[in-house]
Automatic annotation (TrEMBL):
Protein name: Deoxyribose-phosphate aldolase
Function field: Catalyzes a reversible aldol reaction between acetaldehyde and D-glyceraldehyde 3-phosphate to generate 2-deoxy-D-ribose 5-phosphate.
Gene designation per UniProt: deoC
EC code(s) of this entry: 4.1.2.4
Entry's localization field: Cytoplasm
């Protein structure tokens, strides 16, 4: 794809997942999302439902479940995801149980993802695999489990794991594994236009960003600008 300000905006989940985020900050995020014409906003499930009229209908509403550790029972993740859909989420980003991945229990991991997918129905499901905490073989297996369970996207990171966030190498491996059958979301530590461009060139079809404005302004001007930082 041609990487322009407009094309990148159409890939962005404009994100605010800091635990101290306030309703006023979420409202500001929605106003900024409308101004920037991004794909979606992504907020914590406790911030749903969004205030009526707070977001244009053209912008999707994403949330998270099992966030950020992933160490919740599958039934709890499924219930949290189902509640989020009732509260207006049109996309759900779930965190896998990393212990299952690290121990190689791929059947249990597939079952966990399938339980959340069943709970959300036709709502788009992204599976956060925390790629920085996995080996290449584990990344491949986690992507395969996500596909087998009926997920719509695989996603690199929460942005909160100490192992780190997205890398172009992980995105490239994930994209090769799912082969266009699932989307690939890069998130975690993407704070510059150069980093966003690198992720897209590696195969990302969605970007999770908290510094969306700075990145889009850099793309518009052709001048590299570092975003405001933060964990996401």
């Amino acid at each position: 794809m041609s990487i322009t300000r407009e094309s990148v905006a159409g890939l962005i989940d404009h994100t605010l997942l800091k635990p101290e985020a306030t309703p006023d900050q979420v409202a500001a995020l929605c106003r900024e999302a409308a101004e920037l014409n991004v794909f979606s906003v992504c907020v914590s499930p406790s911030q749903l439902p969004l205030p009526a009229g707070g977001l244009p209908s053209t912008i999707a509403v994403a949330t998270v479940c099992g966030f950020p550790s992933g160490s919740h029972a599958a039934s709890v993740k499924a219930a949290e995801a189902a509640q989020a859909v009732r509260d207006g989420a049109t996309e759900v980003d779930m965190v896998i149980n990393l212990g299952l991945a690290k121990s190689g229990d791929w059947d249990a991991l597939t079952a966990e993802i399938a339980a959340v997918k069943k709970a959300v129905g036709s709502v788009l499901l992204k599976v956060i695999i925390e790629s920085a905490a996995l080996t290449d073989d584990e990344i491949v297996a986690a992507c395969q489990a996500s596909e087998a369970a009926g997920a719509d996207y695989v996603k690199t990171s929460t942005g909160f794991h100490p192992a780190g966030g997205a890398t172009a190498a992980a995105v490239r491996l994930m994209a090769a594994t799912v082969g266009g059958r699932l989307g690939v979301k890069a998130s975690g530590g993407i704070r510059t236009a150069a980093a966003a461009t690198e992720m897209i060139e590696a195969g990302a079809t969605r970007l999770g960003l908290s510094g969306s404005r700075a990145i889009l302004e850099a793309l518009s001007s052709g001048t590299e600008v570092t975003g405001p930082g933060g964990s996401y």
